[in-house]
Amino acid sequence: MAEKGIYCAVTETQGANWDPARARREQDKWGEHASFMDGLVEDGFVVLGGPVGNGDEVLLIVRAGGEAEIEARLAADPWLPMEILRVAKIERWQILLGDPSRT
């Protein structure tokens, strides 16, 4: 389980090797990517996540000790070194309404 920490909104975008002719679940190494992401959820690191808008971007809400931990954990996603996805932005998120532990 992730240690108590701050919440951050992480935006990932399609990388240089995203194949626009293929659906998300048809991209190379989808199974490995999905398994990796499921593990981050099980660890309590990813609180919420999924594609937004037309699907060109993914929003992850994570709970971590800081930006360095986020970058290190996400670097193990097989899609990042393959440049299928890339981390575009990491922003600290101050939650004023709701309780993400209820998800």
Fold topology:
Layout lengths: L5 E9 L15 H13 L3 E7 L4 E8 L2 H8 L10 E8 L11
Antiparallel strand pairs: 1-3, 1-4, 2-3
Task: Describe the 3D structure.
With 103 residues, the protein is of the alpha+beta class. It has one domain (6-95): Dimeric alpha+beta barrel (Alpha-Beta Plaits, 2-Layer Sandwich). It is 20% helix and 31% strand. A 4-stranded antiparallel sheet has the order 2-3-1-4. Strand 2 (46-52) and strand 3 form a beta hairpin. The longest helix is centred in the middle third of the chain and has 13 residues, at 30-42. The relative contact order is 0.31.
The top-level CATH class is Alpha Beta
The end-to-end distance, rounded to whole angstroms, is 15 Å
Strand order of the largest sheet: 2-3-1-4
Total number of domains? 1
Superfamily (CATH H level) name:
Dimeric alpha+beta barrel
CATH fold name: Alpha-Beta Plaits
Structure class: alpha+beta
Shape: globular
In which range does the helix fraction lie?
10-25%
Q: What does the radius of gyration come to?
A: 14 Å
Low-pLDDT segments, ≥5 res: none
Largest sheet: 4 strands, antiparallel
Strand/helix succession: EHEEHE
Strand content: 25-35%
